[in-house]
Structures are given as structure tokens and as C-alpha cells.
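Hi X.,

You mentioned you wanted examples for the new student's onboarding notes, showing what a folding record looks like when two proteins sit in one file. Here is a clean example. The first protein comes first, with its sequence line followed by its C-alpha cells.
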Amino acid sequence: MPATSSASPLVRIDYPHLARREMLAFLPGDCPRVLDVGCNTGAFGELVKQTRPGVEVWGVEPDAGAAERATLHLDRVMQGFFDGALPLPKAHFHAIVFNDVLEHMPDPWAALLHAAPLLAPGGVVVVSLPNLLHLDTLWPLVHDRDFRYESSGVRDRTHLRFFTRASALRMFDECGYDVLHAQGINEQWYTPSLKRRLVYRLFGRQLEETKYVQFAFVARPGAQRLAS
């Protein structure tokens, strides 16, 4: 469940126990302590602990039922929003993970600023964000002039913020982070017609971002942020 910081979504959605295995590769190799923000039922942290024995995984989850389930898989779970009200230790975590969480927050910039002092020296945030330019969203906007909310995916009706790769990079920069890695994930694109295949062949470079459902980012607070 998304860890919104000051306002809850109007629509309650129960998200599945989904491990997000593709995000495991973005965790640093040496990462003894991980904080999973919006951990839902703890599936990602459970995977981390299964594949990296000895790693300590904490979770933050606002939904009480999901948080209770997460306690079965994680070392420690705090039920609440990701803000100053939670007694999270400073300079403690080597990675803070936001798997499709920031877009549910009224102020994702505040969440990134709050995360920085919780990171141990050299620590990073690992972020997955839905891609507004994914073809499934872009084509109806251009062809049908329509934006239809759905129960999940890029157009999840509980999303409060929307990002492209460029706007996500700008958000990290505005929060004083240096982006170490940015990569499209969950590639999904469709070529049902000869015309569309031809368009991708001619304009493949310009349309590259439309293939990805999400983008993954690894970012580290810059020297100026660390000094503040």
C-alpha cells in the first residue's frame, strides 16, 4: 500500500503480494540495511532476505492490515506514513526503496528530502516510477484524446503524481540527489499493424521511452544535501 505522507488516496486498492523481482538488481551489492517505504505485505523485502542472507530489512506501511502481514517477512515494520512522526534512525540505511510509491504521495519531493538524512554514508534511494509516456497511456491521449483511470498500472486511480523520465530526473535534481542510474524496466510495446512497425523503425530513438511501463532510478544525496 502506498506510504502517502499527508493525505490518503480517495480509493482503497488492495495490492497483491508482489515481490518486484526486477528491482532487486538495483540494490547495491553491499547493502546490510534496507528500508522499504510503502512495503505493502513485505513481498520485496522477503525476496531481499531470501536472496541476500543477513540483510536487515525494515518496512514502512500506512495500512494496518498490510503492515501486520509484512511483519511475517521483515525484521521490523512501522505502521504509518513516511514522515517525521515515525522514529526512524538517522544515517542507518544503506538503501531506501520506493517501489511505485512516490506517485501516490501528495509531495514526493518531501519524501526524498526526508529520506536523505536516514541514509548511511554512501547510501542510495532506489526508486521505481510509472512511465506516463508508456504506449498504453500515450496512444489513447493522442488518438482518442482520453485519459481513463484504471485499477492498476500507470493510470492507477490512486496516483496523485505522474512522471516521465525527464520529470523524474528533474525531481531528483531539485531534491539535491545525484542520479547514478536510470533505466527503463518492464518493457512492453505493441506492433499490431504494419504502420506501427514502420513508425517504430523510422522513429525508434524518439519513441524508445514509450516501450517501458516504469523507470528505475538509483540516486545518492549530493554533497550539498549531505552538508545541510
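Then the second protein repeats the pattern, sequence line and then C-alpha cells:
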Amino acid sequence: MKAQAVVARNIRRLRVGRRLSQEALAVDAGIDRTYVSRLERGRENPTVAVLEKLAIALDSEISEFFKMPLRGEAAPRPLPAGRRPGK
């Protein structure tokens, strides 16, 4: 798996694991939502500065973005669409 794909997968894994929308992550990291989308799809190469912002927003270490998935591990599923109840 290419490094860019690993980073993309892990950004999404961490975001979904924390139940954050792309918009919420973008706001917390101080970047554009469409940029988060492009990162998660492997369309952009983030700088170290952007990875640092994302790590802080996700309350994780930068090294988390480089973890290789286990053999046969499913890709992170998207969050359910729409607003969460009570919001």
C-alpha cells in the first residue's frame, strides 16, 4: 500500500473513530472541509504542518497516520448521514 493511501486511510479511521464529521475535523484543525475530503480520498499530500494540526484536532500522535492496516482489515466505514439525534 502506498504511503499516501496509508495516511488517507488513517485520517479517516481516526476521524470516524472519534465520530467527527469532516466539517468538525476541519474546523478543529483550522483547515478547509474540502481539503479534509481530498486528504481522505488520497487526492492531496498533506504537509507535516497539516498532519500536526490534524493530530492535535484528533487528540492523537502524528505516528498514527502511518500505521499500516492489518492484512484483511476492512476500510473505515463512513459515519451515518444526517444530523445526530438531539442536535
